[in-house]
Amino acid sequence: MKPNRIIIHCSDSLFGSAIEINRWHLEKGWNSIGYHFVICNGQVENNNYLVCMDGAIERGRDIDNLGAHAREHNEDSIGICLIGKESFTESQFKSLEKLVKQLMFKYCIPVDRVIGHYEVSNKRCPNFDVGEFRDRITYIFSLKAT
Prior knowledge:
Elements: E1 5-10, H1 18-27, E2 37-44, E3 48-59, E4 77-82, H2 90-107, E5 114-116, H3 130-145
């Protein structure tokens, strides 16, 4: 697969990890986790919090394998899932920014091809304004260019 888009998602769960999402997707009959990356929020079962997992980037499906995260848009996209429902941590956003910038550079993906799941579906996912996220990345790139 030659990715030319990055699609950002949320798990719509209070806690989770790549291992747990893989289990959830297997229970749906999928062959593995649908996302290529998962960004944790530090929350684990029983309302426990692990600071070392807040913002941790976990690998999901191999990047060379077709994702299963955005119906009719998997063939050319990388799927990133943030653990959470309606709010995300500062550490998650820092990790998302770092990961997205790395992927943009590696695969020559322009910032306007970094989108939220809601931009290709009738869902609210990832429950934040990805346009503002794109603007932030664009601003950071412009600062580094000067």
